[in-house]
Design brief:
Elements: H1 4-20, H2 51-55, E1 78-79, H3 88-100, E2 106-108, H4 112-116, H5 139-145, E3 156-158, H6 164-177, E4 187-189, H7 193-199, H8 207-224, E5 228-229, E6 231-234, H9 235-240, H10 245-264, H11 270-274, E7 277-283, H12 287-308, H13 314-317, E8 321-325, H14 337-352, E9 356-357, H15 371-386, H16 401-423, H17 427-432, H18 435-453, H19 472-475, H20 483-499, H21 502-516, H22 523-531, H23 536-547
Parallel strand pairs: 1-9, 2-3, 3-4, 4-5, 6-7, 7-8
Helix pairs in contact: 3-5, 6-22, 8-10, 10-12, 10-16, 12-14, 12-16, 14-15, 21-22, 21-23
């Protein structure tokens, strides 16, 4: 970036300065990846960077600066707070509140039984229905969720992983009842059974079969839903499990490449497949590290798609992501400070070029977010996007000696971690033998030790503690599960099962069972079953009869 004589002069002056001010005698400063950070950075630290090769322009290869030419200059990144609690009807009310408050998208969280494919009337679901998200059992629940809300023209995003195919079947079936074609639906779904197997624990089927079902949805969407992103890779699962930035991106990239490989086997061209992938990851309060992480991820993804897979279209090489502040690093001590932490995480995502952002409420570490908590989170995003002026120019940190150096280092660390996965037998083997999970847990435990010893500062927790701390419930209003509404939901499900055409339901389930024994795409059969009001529990049980159940590996 400078001629050799200028660089030599800079290096000499830097050494003089370090000696004069005894910088070389200062304690080392490290990132969370144990990368040593210098006191200052100069052109000498980025001398090997070729601007056009390594940085370039937004909307063009290598996409370091962003997937679109003008990014958020004229339209803010999408506000995307996730909501789900009690029942579909209750969540419908919150969606309407957020929609009127300026959130132009619908984003959903499911309860644990729904993630696991258990109906709300299943004894195993007792006391879990509606507790950490909404229950979705049949098409009727989906119709209630979308009552008086538009399904066309507004993106819908949801965090369903293993059973994404069933949820999207409900979505397609409901849209068709409204005379909205599947080709007009816009949004995304996680559809990532691999990441949840690494660090979430809601994987339902053995991995090979989970990948098959995920690939069925990807193939179906590539051929029938041009505006829909059928896989939103969940880097967030690793991050919320305690992963560092290199683990987060490396593991999710390995998982993504596994799904791409499987879809290519179906005869879908790489430019059709890769353009359907998006990512959902976490940011922390470490603003510069996070911005560098996202820039490195974007450049590396572009290289992989172009050099490894031969993608030709820009959309196939463009890494698109939703950035979410990691609630793992939110704390009960003076909980209002979590809104500050979340704002810093959002700043890191914004400077890193996020396409969309949810923001956890300051109370989200303890319970379902309240309306007040979500209003503050949405307002924080809106201030960041529309008052701070950070979106006036694209990739404003580009050219920073430190950020460009750190972007390079982040890419190196991500590649090293991806190589470790290959050494452990590739993606599926590295998950099934517990390597990915164990690697994340080792890092997380180290971070907890650092917090306990004070090496990692957490304000009000291990430093600047207040003499007297109020209990949580005196500071924030915790969401209370509406048990009456939940019981009404369960009763409604029982009524649906009693009154629907059960012969038709059994025929549709039988077709799913037989198709699951073949290599045929299951999506048409699942959509048809959804239209008969077959439940998520019934469809999941049918597939388990053919495929069996996932068993978590032992982690050493």
């Amino acid at each position: 970036m400078s001629d050799k004589s200028s660089l030599d002069s800079i290096v000499r002056e830097e050494k003089r300065w370090e000696k004069q001010f005894k910088i070389d005698q200062s304690p080392k400063v490290l990132t969370d990846l144990d990368i040593e950070v210098k006191t200052v950075y100069t052109p000498a630290d980025v001398k090997d960077i070729d601007f056009l090769r390594d940085i370039g322009f937004p909307g063009e290869y290598p996409f370091t600066r962003g997937p679109y030419p003008e990014m958020s200059r004229h339209r803010p990144f999408r506000y995307a707070l996730f909501t789900g609690f009690d029942t579909p009807e209750k969540t419908n009310e919150r969606w309407k509140f957020l929609y009127k408050a300026g959130q132009p998208s619908f984003n959903i969280v499911y309860d644990l039984p729904t993630h696991m494919g258990l109906d709300s009337d299943d004894p195993r679901a007792e006391d879990e229905v509606g507790r950490v998200g909404i229950p979705v059992d049949t098409l009727e629940d989906w119709e209630a969720l979308w009552k008086d809300l538009p399904m066309e023209g507004v993106p819908f995003n949801n965090n369903m992983e293993t059973l994404a195919a069933i949820i999207i079947a409900f979505h397609v079936a409901t849209a068709e009842k409204r005379n909205v074609a599947a080709s007009k639906l816009w949004g995304s779904v996680s559809n990532d059974p691999l990441s949840t197997a690494v660090s979430k624990g809601t994987t339902v089927f053995p991995l090979a079969h989970g990948v098959r079902l995920a690939t069925d949805l990807i193939e179906f969407s590539c051929r029938n839903m041009p505006r829909f992103f059928p896989v939103n890779m969940k880097a967030v699962n690793m991050a919320e499990g305690g992963a560092n930035s290199a683990q987060e991106i490396a593991f999710v990239f390995c998982n993504a490449l596994c799904l791409i490989d499987e879809t290519l086997k179906r005869g879908v061209p790489i430019d059709d497949v890769a353009s359907k992938f998006s990512f959902f990851g976490c940011s922390t309060v470490h603003v510069f590290e996070e911005a560098a992480k996202w820039r490195a991820a974007r450049r590396l993804w572009a290289k992989l798609m172009k050099e490894k897979y031969g993608a030709k279209k820009p959309a196939s090489m463009a890494f698109r992501f939703t950035g979410y502040h990691n609630p793992l690093w939110m704390y009960p001590e003076e909980p209002e400070l979590n809104l500050v932490r979340a704002a810093l995480g959002a700043l890191g995502s914004a400077l890193g070029g996020a396409q969309a952002m949810p923001l956890p409420s300051f109370d989200e570490a303890y319970a379902i977010p309240t309306e007040k908590g979500q209003s503050l989170s949405l307002g924080t995003l809106q201030i960041l996007a529309e008052e701070s002026n950070i979106t006036k120019t694209v990739d404003p940190l580009a050219g920073s000696y430190y950020v460009e150096w750190l972007t390079n280092r982040m890419e190196e660390e991500i590649v090293k971690k991806m190589d470790e996965v290959e050494k452990h037998g590739g993606t599926l083997t590295a998950i099934n033998n517990g390597f990915m999970t164990g690697d994340i847990l080792n890092y997380f435990c180290q971070q907890q030790d650092d917090i306990a010893t004070g090496k990692r500062v957490v304000v009000r927790k291990n430093k600047y503690r207040l003499e007297k701390e109020d209990d949580i419930e005196s500071r924030i209003a915790l969401h209370k599960l509406d048990t009456t509404a939940v019981q009404s939901h369960i009763n409604k499900l029982k009524k649906i099962k009693a009154e629907r055409n059960n012969a038709e339901v059994q025929r549709s389930l039988s077709k799913i069972r037989e198709a699951a024994k073949t290599k045929e795409n299951l999506m048409p059969y699942i959509i048809q079953a959804a239209k008969t009001y077959a439940s998520i529990g019934e469809m999941t049980k049918t597939l388990k009869e053919v495929w069996g159940e996932y068993r978590e590996p032992r982690v050493l």
